[in-house]
Amino acid sequence: MSLPAAEPRLPSVGGMVKTVVVPVPRWAIAVPPTAVLVLAFTWGRHLGAGVPFGLVTLSLVAVTLIAAVVAAVHHAEVVAHRVGEPFGTLILAVAVTVIEVGLILMLMSAGGAGASSLARDTVFAAFMIVCNGVVGLCLLVGALRHYELEFRVEGTTAALATLTALATLALVLPAFTTSTPGPTYSGAQLAFAGIASLTLYGVFVFVQTVRHRDYFLPVEFLPVETGPDASEHRGARPEDTHAPRPGARTALLSLGLLMLCLVAVVGLAKTASPAIEGAVAAVGAPRAVVGVCIALLVLLPETAAAVRAAARNRLQTSLNLALGSALASIGLTIPAIAVASIWLSGPLVLGLGPKEMVLLALTVVVTVLTVAPGRATVLQAAVHLMIFGGFLFLAVTP
């Protein structure tokens, strides 16, 4: 049976229109149903080295889980390419957030020491990974290849302002409230934080996709000047402007396979959660490392997409992906966790410690200084990557 393919229409040299067929990768079609089969086989089983074939089964679950995450983001990219910018980056961010929330809820429902702070650790790790690791890597790759990178200040600063407000409401203020003991919110405070986070994210999405959509378009798609040449675009490259666009059938197929991947990822995370907790305890690592591992796993495929865009000198797309992921991680995860806390036992620890607050404040200040000029070089890349390295080092050796 032939596989569905994208069928974009590209202008030829002579002005005639030709169709370019891009086949869908077979692995992307095979992974989702395979992941569902592995989930059905391992559901309810105890995975561990002490069980016959336990280590083999655990390895199979781990490999399948990673493959399902990669496939999910691949299919989200296909759908995103179909709908275009900036809706595409929004779809990617939401898909990644669904996976992140599913992983957090599955691990929190398993209980154990550190489960109450898992949401905080994961959201903070996602913030640091995106704003320092992903942004720094994109700046490095783009600057090494194109010397100086250009992006829209209006859209990037708007995203950063929203992200700073969300991070403060969700991760900083709980450490200073007095209604409940510890770095937690009371029920009313948690409800307010969830509603505020969802509202801010919703307004940002409206601005990004409707009201001021041009703020988030890549620089090469902006008019050169008003006048006779206004229809031409700065720095437009034929391979970017006329990239193959998936057909409707391909996009629908990817949407269905994306749903399968999301179900498989959440289920496999639930199956593997006891083994993950045991592995972290066995090596003597802090509990926060679990959150870092979840964030790294979820953001890895999207990081690859952002780096590819930076290599093509489309840093605005990279920043849309990176900051959009951090916005969705807080703006959607916190409300979801707030609702889920009704059924979860134990307190929900959200407030950061002093060390984490310093890293958060440093990241915000440096990122503001990076995006304010609208241009960036390899120096900004080095600064962000060094902060990211410090975050990882302190997470393992607090």
Task: Tell me what the structure shows.
The protein has 398 residues and is mainly α. It has one domain (5-396): NCX, central ion-binding region (A middle domain of Talin 1, Up-down Bundle). The protein is 68% helix and 4% strand. The chain contains 13 helices and six strands. It has helices spanning 26-42, 54-83, 87-109, 118-146, 153-172, 187-211, 238-241, 248-282, 288-311, 315-331, 333-340, 354-371, 378-396; strands spanning 5-6, 9-11, 17-19, 22-23, 149-150, 375-376. Strands 1-4 form a two-stranded antiparallel sheet. Helix 1 crosses helix 2 (54-83) and helix 4 packs antiparallel against helix 13 (378-396). The protein starts with a strand and ends with a helix. Mean pLDDT is 78; it is low at 1-21 and 223-242.
CATH class: Mainly Alpha
**Count of the domains:** 1
Strand content: under 5%
Distance between the termini: 55 Å
